[in-house]
């Protein structure tokens, strides 16, 4: 008996190829979508981390503004090489809307950081002295290193500069679209303002609100805006 040869016809092969192509395209689309989701989430995570780093650093320094030691500096009598109270001490926190610049006069804990702008040395009983730069306290004295720190938004870089020297500011974080500061004034309810026009109003400051908008240079994620509020520990 003659056997009938069996196999795939041309139509069956073409149908199989079309089905395989459809399945392959589906797998590729899933891969592309997964890759896009990963890139978007990774970009969003980097943006959040940059904002968290910058805001937490500024908050820590804002909380220490106006801390000039244990005695009133207005009664200080300079004894060489100490200096008179610098004018910068009158405005330990200053915000310039026009240039997007935040200036802080802040105290550090310990002496392991960079060279301080000034050092306040006191016995916390009878006298206080102010010195330029670093100063080692004598026996029975305690030192308070102070630094002038300036944050400014230049282009899309949030820059930071420490001290009053000629060194240029260095980028802290990049891809910043907006940097804003407002002050919370005592009252019921508390009100916020971006302008402090006189010392009497400055004495009413109780908190500082920081706003930072971070952008994705590749446009994969929408601009993200972060807000934090730092309560002041020391009155101006």
Mean pLDDT: 84
Order of helices and strands: HEEEEEEEEEHEE
Structural class, judged by helices and strands?
Answer: alpha+beta
* Number of self-contained structural domains: 1
Tags for this model:
about 240 residues, alpha+beta, seven-stranded antiparallel beta sheet, four-stranded antiparallel beta sheet, 11 strands, elongated
Structural write-up:
It is a single chain. It contains two helices and eleven strands; from the N terminus they run H-E-E-E-E-E-E-E-E-E-H-E-E. It has one domain (19-231). The mean pLDDT is 84. Strand 6 (157-162) and strand 7 form a beta hairpin. 19% of the residues are buried. By secondary structure, it is α+β, with helices and mostly antiparallel strands. The strands form two sheets. Strands 1, 2, 3, 4, 5, 6 and 7 form a seven-stranded antiparallel β-sheet that branches. The termini are far apart. 25% of the residues lie in helices and 32% in strands.
């Amino acid at each position: 008996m003659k056997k009938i040869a069996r196999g795939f016809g041309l139509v069956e092969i073409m149908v199989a190829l079309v089905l395989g192509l459809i399945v392959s395209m589906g797998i590729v689309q899933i891969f592309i979508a997964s890759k896009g989701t990963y890139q978007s989430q990774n970009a969003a995570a980097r943006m959040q981390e940059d904002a968290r780093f910058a805001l937490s650093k500024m908050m820590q320094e804002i909380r220490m503004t106006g801390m000039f030691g244990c005695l009133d500096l207005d009664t200080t009598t300079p004894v060489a090489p100490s200096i008179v109270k610098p004018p910068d001490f009158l405005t330990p926190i200053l915000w310039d809307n026009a240039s997007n610049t935040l200036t802080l006069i802040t105290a550090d804990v310990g002496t392991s950081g960079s060279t301080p702008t000034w050092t306040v040395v006191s016995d916390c009983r009878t006298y206080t002295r102010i010195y330029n730069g670093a100063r080692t306290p004598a026996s029975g004295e305690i030192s308070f290193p102070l630094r002038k720190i300036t944050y400014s938004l230049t282009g899309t870089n949030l820059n930071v500069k420490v001290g009053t020297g000629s060194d240029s500011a260095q980028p802290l974080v990049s891809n910043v679209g907006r940097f804003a500061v407002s002050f919370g004034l005592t009252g019921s309810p508390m009100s916020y303002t971006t302008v402090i026009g006189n010392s009497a109003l400055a004495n009413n400051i109780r908190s500082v609100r920081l706003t930072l908008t971070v952008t994705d240079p590749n446009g994969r994620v929408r601009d993200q805006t972060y807000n934090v509020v730092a309560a002041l520990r020391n009155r101006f």
